[in-house]
Design brief:
432 residues; alpha/beta; four-stranded mixed beta sheet; 39% helix; binds 4'-deoxy-4'-aminopyridoxal-5'-phosphate
Length: 432
């Protein structure tokens, strides 16, 4: 491991940052993972680790925010991608490659009868909601307050509400400045895990409601499965009101071999997918019951220059094939061990913190409030500051978690990696 930190003025990362500033807005292309004053620039990744341009090694618990479920450069994924690169990476005719990946998804998840591929999770959410509109002949979309579904205008409402603007019933708060009123007003915002309030709010919009979209394990509501009673209220109500229930499993597919819906129950009409199904390449998909998926064959044309490209399809298939039931079990076991160990460290230090999570994911919170909604998850500016501090101090010591102090574990992580994470967290809390 090199001794030079990316933060040193003569580091290679600083030199890259200075160049980037000249030509990239805000010096970057991906605000979500940017750090002030600038982050380390990555050179390469291998297994559970990434190396920056200084040669410094970091344990990578982001795995590109949940994409790389087998870590970096997994041999079987690399082999599939290499073969495809040699055979050609995109064609304006179909290739066989999209069929086995769709077959695998339909074999694993009961509600998946048909699949439509697209290029990102955001697009998957967008086209799923368009299909719901086409099917129902209605236009409004309901989503949960504070829950992220990517960058599609209708799901960006009330993503970052604050106590100053969130109101009593969740207010429709724009995320992007000057979002058209028609979009802001076309969204119905409901509170996670509050069946009575959600039902009351949804009934008010029954005549216009095309779909309710939920993340079954919403990270910003505690990263635990939604209460079964809440989910079944939404299921029954959407049926009664003539709206579709759409799951966003862009992240949540990683929680079970049959998806989150298989593991925690639930009976969605359509499901948006992304991240792990592309093996590290850009991907999105909608899967669901044929009756609703049929919209894509008629009223909702989707296309896209790179949609279903064989490089993504081949790498995605290889990655999903490696993700057997046994591998899911390993991910779950490691997640349990990690959450327990981090909790012990918090208790040892008497810190005002907690760890939550499900399966292979964990999140470290700067408070001890019980979390079951965005409002109980919400981090005050002072709390957010503490999270940033922990994040950066872990990074300085060679452990990379997401800026929200969230970890996405990969299947190649073993006890050594868990120990490294926990020792580093222990040191950081000790220094606080
Ligand atoms: N839905 C969820 C739950 C997500 O976490 C994300 C991405 N983090 C998206 C949708 C959007 O996916 P993408 O970034 O591939 O557009």
């Amino acid at each position: 491991m090199s001794n030079k930190s990316w933060l040193e003025p003569n580091s290679k990362s600083n030199a890259l940052y200075q160049r980037a500033k000249e030509v990239l807005v805000g010096a970057n292309t991906r605000g979500q993972v940017w750090l002030n004053p600038y982050p380390p620039y990555v050179q390469r990744g291998e297994g559970a680790y990434v190396y920056d341009v200084e040669g410094t090694r970091y344990l990578d618990l982001t795995n590109n925010l949940g994409v790389l479920i087998h870590g970096h450069a997994h041999p079987e994924v690399v082999a599939a991608a290499k073969q495809q690169v040699e055979d050609g990476v995109c064609f304006a005719l179909p290739t066989e490659s999209e069929i086995p990946l769709a077959e695998l998804l339909c074999e694993r998840v009961t509600n998946f009868e048909k699949v439509r591929f697209i290029n990102t999770g955001s697009e998957a959410v967008a086209i799923a909601l368009k299909a719901a509109r086409a099917y129902t002949g209605k236009t409004k979309i309901a989503k949960m307050e504070g829950v992220y579904h990517g960058s599609y205008d209708f799901v960006e409402i009330s993503n970052y509400s604050t106590p100053q603007n969130w109101g009593n019933d969740p207010a429709n708060v724009e995320t992007v400045k000057s979002t058209p009123h028609g979009i802001v007003d076309g969204v119905v915002v409901i509170p996670a895990n509050d069946s009575a309030a959600s039902e009351r709010i949804l009934r008010e919009h029954a005549d216009d409601l095309a779909a309710v979209i939920i993340d079954p394990v919403p990270p910003r509501c505690g990263m635990q499965p939604l209460a079964p009673e809440y989910v079944s209220t939404l299921r029954d109500l959407t049926r009664e009101l003539g709206a579709l229930l759409v799951y966003d499993e862009v992240i949540a597919l990683r929680f079970g071999y049959e998806g989150s819906q298989g593991r925690f129950g639930g009976d969605p009409d359509l499901t948006a997918l992304g991240k792990i199904i592309g093996g590290g390449y850009p991907v999105g998909a909608v899967a669901g019951k044929s009756e609703y998926m049929q919209a894509f064959a008629s009223d909702v044309p989707t296309s896209g220059t790179f949609t279903g490209n064989p490089l993504t399809m081949s790498a995605g298939l290889a990655s999903m094939q490696v993700l057997t039931r046994e591998v899911y079990q390993h991910l779950d076991d490691n997640g349990d061990k990690t959450r327990a160990a981090l909790t012990e460290i918090i208790q040892k230090h008497g810190a005002d913190m907690q760890v939550t999570g499900t399966g292979s994911m964990f999140s470290i919170h700067p408070h001890t409030r019980s979390i079951d909604s965005y409002r109980s998850y919400y981090r005050s500016p002072e709390e957010a500051q503490r999270v940033s501090h922990i994040h950066i101090e872990m990074l300085k010591r060679g452990v990379l978690v997401a800026p929200t102090c969230t970890g996405f574990m990969s299947s190649v992580m073993q006890d050594d990696e868990i120990a490294l994470l926990c020792d580093t967290f222990d040191t950081v809390l000790g220094d606080l």
